[in-house]
Amino acid sequence: MNAPTSAEGGPIESTPVGDVTARVAGREIPEATVARLPVYLRALHAMLEHGTVTCSSEELAVAAGVNSAKLRKDLSYLGSYGTRGVGYDVDYLRYQIAREIGVTQDWAVIIVGIGNLGHALANYSGFRTRGFRVVALLDADPALHGRQVAGLPVRPFDDLETVVRDSGVAIGVIATPALAAQDVADRMVAAGVTSILNFAPSVLSVPAGVDVRKVDLSIELQILAYHEQRKGPQPADDAASRLAGEAS
Amino acid sequence: MNAPTSAEGGPIESTPVGDVTARVAGREIPEATVARLPVYLRALHAMLEHGTVTCSSEELAVAAGVNSAKLRKDLSYLGSYGTRGVGYDVDYLRYQIAREIGVTQDWAVIIVGIGNLGHALANYSGFRTRGFRVVALLDADPALHGRQVAGLPVRPFDDLETVVRDSGVAIGVIATPALAAQDVADRMVAAGVTSILNFAPSVLSVPAGVDVRKVDLSIELQILAYHEQRKGPQPADDAASRLAGEAS
DNA sequence: CTCATTTTGTTCTCACGTTCACAAACTCCT
DNA sequence: AGGAGTTTGTGAACGTGAGAACAAAATGAG
Ligand SMILES: NC(=O)c1ccc[n+]([C@@H]2O[C@H](COP(=O)([O-])OP(=O)(O)OC[C@H]3O[C@@H](n4cnc5c(N)ncnc54)[C@H](O)[C@@H]3O)[C@@H](O)[C@H]2O)c1
Ligand SMILES: NC(=O)c1ccc[n+]([C@@H]2O[C@H](COP(=O)([O-])OP(=O)(O)OC[C@H]3O[C@@H](n4cnc5c(N)ncnc54)[C@H](O)[C@@H]3O)[C@@H](O)[C@H]2O)c1
């Protein structure tokens, strides 16, 4: 099996699909392209560290794991930053993509729910290096309050409004149990958060104007399981089917 | 903004796109549908626990956060399990979807890289309740070997081949640093793993026949940042624009 | 039994995304 | 300077996915 890797997680939730054509014109980037820009950005970053100054669409496409025609079309939405017969200036293109995405400056992020996953997220160094800065960790459990995690104190969930107001947080991460996720989202939205990344396995409902993306481990595994099942009737699960005389 | 939530992470990596029409016929489920089936499954599970015996496509669609026409079309790929004028039997439909996905029996899963994220994943209860069973935790760091995490001992990475052979593992989870991810993937594939869930921010290259899905936090955040930036020029980042003297 | 009502399963249409293919534009060599 | 060789940017063809609309099937009332 080999299909085009698209970031996919899938599109943004909500969006009345109304004004698809109603934009300013020329400045509208397809959602599928937006999802791939971060991948290109990462590949360019790696090239820079490797000392590469110039690259062709083919090279970058390979590094990003996509078709080169698709890459060129994606980049064409940003403008004409390449040179025919030569390729792209790595650092220049990197800057242009970063500017388009909006990660030339840091975004303040808060994490709500400092359990197993919240701890890992708080300690994740990839935040800082990619244009995001964790400014607060919130949890409803009083036993956690004041404890330092990744250099930040865990604060009461009721500090939410204060933190959002004082730090101008626009992006909130939900890492609470599923049952609490909708409540947390409601509070976030009311406090002014307009983008949410949800790790809890629940469908969030938010007003228009608020973006929600979800990361769902179970769904990913189940999709893999579906394809695995189709590859061949080797459930590969219980040792019985194998022990009975077969080496995968 | 409010668009249809699709699990998204995006399709499966690789797949020569060759045999799209070359299947047995009638039994081919679109990738977009496959990605939504787990969402329906979860909604049905919640309904069951709530005591709901029957539901209409409209009710289930709301619970799953999708359009009801889309839901019906998705379910029609599995067969005709509903009753016109009545709706769907919740438990029966749940079983049919689970069977189609292949989660009526447990799948053995291994996790490689027991750091911050690996710990969280190992402790994640959602594995077991959704048809997956973590059978081994592997890490290259000798200091971790033998330590118990979530009731399982961390084993040397070199145990990989043994574990895969003995447990019939088909699904591997990569939670190592990006630099090690490709090596780990290669070893997994060589050992017989045919489905990989990759949390490291790197593009994996695997032979045809092996499915790779990636979960990339940075990409999700950057997609949110892109839309956030478009909402209005309020970077909301540095407190400078707001105050120049504020409690983080 | 007949008819109104409900809700599924499917068809049709449109929009979106991917890929091919090629002209335009640039470099380098002679 | 001119021509061969490269590589971008994009027009057009194709395939997939979403949503509206409706016919078919089931229930229940009269
Ligand atoms: N652990 C994983 O690897 C993993 C993977 C995928 C998804 N998830 C999901 O992420 C979420 C968190 O998982 P976890 O393993 O960290 O769970 P956890 O129980 O370890 O942590 C949850 C934390 O949220 C806090 N919390 C509960 N209600 C709250 C509220 N209303 N407001 C603020 N904080 C609240 C709790 O005090 C706790 O600290 C769950 O929904 C889980 O399904 C976890
Ligand atoms: N922590 C997070 O919340 C988070 C979020 C998203 C993505 N990620 C990604 O997940 C990966 C792991 O993150 P982390 O924070 O857990 O890192 P970590 O450094 O805490 O853990 C990495 C673990 O992998 C082990 N390891 C290294 N090389 C190995 C190899 N060749 N074979 C086997 N094991 C090996 C290390 O010993 C270590 O225990 C990273 O790629 C990170 O970018 C992490």
Gist of the model:
The structure is a homodimer of 248-residue chains. Chain A has 248 residues and is an alpha/beta fold. Helices cover 40% and strands 17% of the residues of chain A.
Q: Which helices and strands appear, and what pairs or packs with what?
A:
The structure is a homodimer of 248-residue chains.
Chain A: E1 2-3, H1 31-49, E2 54-55, H2 57-64, H3 68-76, E3 82-83, E4 87-89, H4 90-101, E5 107-112, H5 116-122, H6 126-129, E6 132-139, E7 148-149, E8 152-156, H7 160-167, E9 171-174, H8 178-191, E10 195-198, E11 211-214, H9 217-231, H10 240-243
The structure holds nicotinamide-adenine-dinucleotide (2 copies).
Chain A binds a DNA duplex (30 and 30 nucleotides) through residues 4, 6, 17, 20, 30-33, 56-58, 67, 69-70, 72-73, 75-76, 80, 82-88.
Your description of this structure?
- 2 copies of one chain form a homodimer.
- A 7-stranded mixed sheet of chain A has the order 7-8-6-5-9-10-11, sandwiched between helices. Chain A has a 3-stranded antiparallel sheet with strand order 2-4-3.
- Mean pLDDT of chain A is 87; it is low at 1-26 and 235-248.
- The longest helix of chain A has 19 residues, at 31-49.
- In chain A, helix 1 crosses helix 2.
- Chain A has 248 residues and is of the alpha/beta class.
- Chain A has 10 helices and 11 strands.
- Chain A has helices at residues 31-49, 57-64, 68-76, 90-101, 116-122, 126-129, 160-167, 178-191, 217-231, 240-243, and strands at residues 2-3, 54-55, 82-83, 87-89, 107-112, 132-139, 148-149, 152-156, 171-174, 195-198, 211-214.
- Chain A starts with a strand and ends in a 5-residue tail after the last helix.
- The complex binds nicotinamide-adenine-dinucleotide (NAD) (2 copies).
- One nicotinamide-adenine-dinucleotide sits between chains B (112-118, 139-141, 157, 175-178, 180, 183-184, 199-201, 217) and A (120-121, 123-124, 126).
- The first copy, chain A, binds a DNA duplex (30 and 30 nucleotides) through residues 4, 6, 17, 20, 30-33, 56-58, 67, 69-70, 72-73, 75-76, 80, 82-88.
